[in-house]
Design brief:
The protein is mainly α and about 170 residues long. The protein folds into two domains: about 60 residues, no CATH class; about 70 residues, no CATH class. The protein has ten helices and no strands. Helix 1 packs antiparallel against helix 2, helix 2 crosses helix 3 and helix 6 packs across helix 8.
């Protein structure tokens, strides 16, 4: 079963805000019922702020009420947990690979001349300013930039690159 986001904090919230049994909470949070009981008794995880699974879309109030009325039922994770709830965040590039990004951008511009800035930004997690500087050859390190495959540099996956190549028919 898929565990909820921050299972112990979710267990704290469920203990504080529902009348669910320790078994129901433990089953939903992938915790042993004795661990849930220890959390409820304040023996472990003292001072942890609860995480509301209803607010994040992991559970519904109806599901909680259904399980509170029948202690033998188990909580079911909402199926629409990811529908529009999570905003895509910027792609993180480790510090060791950041100087390699311009090389990956240069490779994409060389191999796919008609590629849009948006596609490069999505694939490599870079900025439009950097792309334009490399495209116009005004980047501060332009003399040191050597086009290298971004997959080999570890900047994107082979699947991402294949999708781009298919999109632009290269």
């Amino acid at each position: 079963m898929i565990a909820p986001l921050m299972p112990k904090a979710t267990a704290v919230w469920l203990i504080d805000n529902t009348t669910l049994t320790f078994e129901q909470i433990g089953d939903f949070c992938n915790l042993h019922p004795l661990e849930v009981q220890a959390i409820a008794d304040g023996e472990i995880i003292v001072g942890l702020v609860g995480h509301d699974p209803v607010q994040t879309g992991q559970l519904t109030i109806d599901e909680i009420e259904r399980c509170q009325s029948d202690p033998t039922t188990r909580l079911q994770m909402s199926t629409n947990i990811h529908e529009g709830k999570i905003k895509k965040i910027a792609k993180y590039t480790p510090v060791a690979l950041r100087q390699a990004k311009p090389n990956g951008i240069a490779w994409l511009l060389k191999e796919i001349p008609s590629i849009s800035d948006g596609d490069i930004m999505r694939t490599l997690g870079t900025t439009k300013t950097t792309i334009q500087a490399i495209r116009l050859k005004t980047h501060r390190n332009i003399s040191e930039i050597k086009p290298e495959n971004p997959v080999h540099l570890g900047l994107c996956s082979i699947e991402d690159l294949n999708l781009l190549l298919q999109k632009y028919q290269v």
